[in-house]
Amino acid sequence: MTTLIERLAGWATDLDLGDIPDDVQELCDAQRQSVRAGIAASSGDAAYRKIASAIDDSLYRDACASMALDFDDYLCFGHTGHSAVLVTQHIGDEAGANDHERLTAQTVANEIGARLGGACLVGPLNGQLWSFIHAVGAAAAAARLLGLDASRAAHALAISLTNAPRPTVPGFMAPDTKLLTAAEPIQAGVRAARLAAAGVTGPLDVLDHPQGFLEGFAYVPLRSMLGGLGTGWATKTLCIKPYPGCAYLDTTLDALADIGPLDATAIKRVIVHGGALTCGMDELSANYAHDDPSPVTVTFSIPWNVAIMLTAGRLTAAEVNQTWLATHRSELESLRHRVELRHDWDATLRTARAFAPLLHLAALAREAGPRTWLGGLRRVRREHRSVSLDVAGVAKVAKLIATGRVPIDRGPSRPWDPEALESFRMTFPARVEIIFADGRREEATADIPQGAAGHPRIGPAEIAAQKAPQKAKGPGQDAPNT
Fold first, then answer.
1. Structure pTM?
2. Where are the transmembrane segments (predicted)?
3. Alpha carbons 140 and 138: distance in angstroms, whole number
4. What are the backbone angles phi and psi of residue 184, rounded to the nearest 5°?
5. Which residue(s) pair with 343 in the sheet?
6. Residue-level pLDDT, tens digit, the chain, 482 residues
7. 139 to each of 52, 113, 202, 235, 325, how far by Cα in Å?
């Protein structure tokens, strides 16, 4: 029997440009624009400049710049652009690949990376901390561009996951090391492809073995999330951020932008109502985003970002800049203490409903079994204390689903259902209330971020085009208007 790694590699090497839908190709174009814009926007970032002075490797430097301001793109289960775009660019240049070969390699990295993130959906890491997707994505793209056959490509993927990266929260949330999050795994993935090209072998059962990768990176391994290749395209869920910062901030900032420019001195209080993902992000950042803001610490904080938006009337790379933050520190400090974030169960449920069609819940419940789900959910509650979770209740529902007593098979027939992907809406609802000193109130809401999959007016391509001019200057220079 073929292993999961061999199936992934077989699909990656067999994929032809003609197999890739036109809309997926167009989204890959937007993704390339976005990554280039993110790199340009980070040119004045102090942490990036230190790294660039120390490292003489253009792929590594670009990966750090792409990560620096969190001004990136993301799919439903992972921020794949750092590796999918940059490996395609750099290794494509080395291999003399044409545009068709580069596009195919980029698609391969996106699809495999998102699936591995989905397989680890219930686990110790999430979002950008799923940095292992850059190791496997880089290996897949490099293997394709270097012309490896299916057998050697499988070994490249296996090698990339043998010593997979497992970043720490302290290393990501505050210091300069955040910028290395994609760069280190990308280098490991490219090396894996080169090693496989030379005949080095890896553990082809690394995703199947009970002591393999998934056991270390998922509390509830969801191997069926590694299927659907060539029928359901994860790239169709591409979202491109309009602001430098975590995606869970975007609807709050969209709502503030809808209200319009405000006199910050007249504001008594700002109340943001958001879902569990937004609240969890903010609670995690609160331990790091203290009185000395930096481009790393503010990008996960609702109070700091609301303060920046109200102070500047916008939020671009020019504001997420060490010099600007230091210059406006007293204004920001005053405003952020007037911002309150409240959890809204309706917002949480709307996000859950938006993601549910991408999963076949009954199949996933049966795949792992009630005992595994219960143990996994207990670990989530224990290790992610910002998540409010009724473990017993969820486990009971999972058991009923798994035994068929709660029939939900009328939804998607499998994970990565094509129709579900086509209609997917990236939903992170936020409601912003502004209370003025004179008693007046203003309110605005946003469900789908601008630039996200399913936004009714402003999709990924539009935001990618808008991001291009956002370039910040170096330390000590005035940031340009964008």
1. 0.90
2. none
3. 5
4. -65, -50
5. 274
6. 799 999 999 999 999 999 999 999 999 999 999 999 999 999 999 999 999 999 999 999 999 999 999 999 999 999 999 999 999 999 999 999 999 999 999 999 999 999 999 999 888 888 999 999 999 999 999 999 999 999 999 999 999 999 999 999 999 999 999 999 999 999 999 999 999 999 999 999 999 999 999 999 998 889 989 999 999 999 999 999 999 999 999 999 999 999 989 999 999 999 999 998 999 899 889 889 877 899 999 999 999 999 999 999 999 999 999 999 999 999 999 999 999 999 998 998 899 889 888 876 666 666 766 667 667 667 766 666 544 444 444 455 455 544 555 444 445 567 899 999 999 999 999 999 999 999 999 999 999 999 999 999 999 999 999 998 666 544 333 333 32
7. 24, 10, 12, 18, 38
Cα separation, 389 vs 398, in Å, equals 14
Which tokens in the block code for residue 208? 């199947």
Q: Which residue shows structure tokens 């496997």?
A: 136
Measured between alpha carbons, how far is 444 from 454 in angstroms, rounded to an integer? Answer: 19
Beta-sheet pairing, 267-274 with 339-343: parallel
Chain-centroid distance, C-alpha 184: 17
- Within 13 Å of residue 347, how many CA atoms lie on the same side as its CB? 24
**CATH code that applies to domain 246-360+411-449:** 3.30.1330.120
Give helix 81-95 / helix 183-197 axis angle, nearest 10°: 40
Q: Which amino acid is at 59?
A: L
Question: CATH assignment of 4-240, given 1.10.357.10, 1.10.4100.10, 3.40.50.720, 3.40.1190.20?
Answer: 1.10.4100.10
Token pair 């290996």 is at which residue? 139
Adjacent-strand bridge partners of 271: 340, 433
- Beta strands of 58-159 (E only): which ranges? 73-74
SS percent in the chain: helix, strand, coil, step 5: 55, 5, 35
Radius of gyration of the chain (CA): 22
Q: How far is CA 39 from CA 45, 132, 244, in A?
A: 10, 21, 11
CA 304 – CA 253 distance, rounded (Å): 11
Q: Where are the chain's structural domains?
A: 4-240, 246-360+411-449
Our measurement of the distance from residue 7's CA atom to the centroid of its chain's CA atoms, rounded to an integer in Å, reads: 25
